[in-house]
Amino acid sequence: MLTFFRKYKFFAVVLFVLSAIIITIIYQLMKPKEMLKIYQPADVSEELVDSTLHYVKKYHTIADFSLTNQNGKTITQDDYKDKIYVADFFFTTCQTICPIMTDHMVKIQEALKNDDGVLLLSHTVTPEIDSVAQLKKYALEKGVNDAKWNLVTGDKKEIYDLARKSYLAAKDVPFQENDLVHTENFVLVDKKKRIRGFYDGTDPEAIEKLLADIEILKQED
C-alpha cells in the first residue's frame, strides 16, 4: 500500500493543486461583483439636503453648472463628461479643516496623477473673496495640477445650490439668508453624474477608502 502511494504521490499533488485552482476560479466567477452604493438625497442626513429633496429616493444626479477656475477658464459639466471625479467645498482663507482637506486632495492628485479618467473639483463657498487671482495663488501654493484639479468660483447662489441640491455636502446657517457651512465631505461622483460615496476629507483612513472605492468604480461599465 505504501509503495502505491509513493508511486502516485506526484500525481496526487498535481491533482490537488489543479483542484484548488479550479475551485478558486469557480468561486471568483460566482462571487458577486463588488458595487458601490448609489446615493440619493433620502439616504443622507436631512441637515445636508435642501428641503425640496428630502424624500427623493432615485434618479438623483449632479446638476449642470458653469463656474470659473483658477485660470479664468469656464468649467462646466462637459469638462467632467465620462469622468469619475471627487468634489468638495472649501475656501482659501479657512484656517480649520480646509488646509487638511486640501492636503488630502493633493495626496489624491498624486495617487491618480497618471489616471486621466479621474479628476478633482473644489468649489469655494466664499466666491466674494476667492477671485480667480486668489484661487490661482492658492493653487500655486498647494501644487495643484491644472489638468487634474479645478478650483472654481462663480455665482454664490449657484455654488450653494450645488452644495445642498446636488452634492449634499453643506449645512444651512439658520436665519442667515444665502449662507451655509461646508462640511469635510469629499464626494465621489461617477461617469453618470451620480453620487457613489462620501468620505471625511480630514481622515487619512477615509482617503485610503476613497482611493480603493475609485478602483472599484473604474471596473463598472
From TrEMBL:
Q: Which PROSITE patterns match?
A: THIOREDOXIN_2 (PS51352)
**Where exactly are the transmembrane stretches of this chain?**
12-30
Q: Name one Pfam family in it.
A: SCO1-SenC
Keywords associated with the record:
Copper, Membrane, Transmembrane, Transmembrane helix
Give yes or no: UniProt keyword Membrane.
yes
Look up the domain of life of the source. Bacteria
Which SUPFAM superfamilies does the record cross-reference, listed alphabetically?
Answer: Thioredoxin-like
CDD domains named in the record: SCO (cd02968)
Question: Which protein is depicted?
Answer: Photosynthetic protein synthase II
Species: Aequorivita vladivostokensis
What lineage is this protein's organism placed in? Bacteria, Pseudomonadati, Bacteroidota, Flavobacteriia, Flavobacteriales
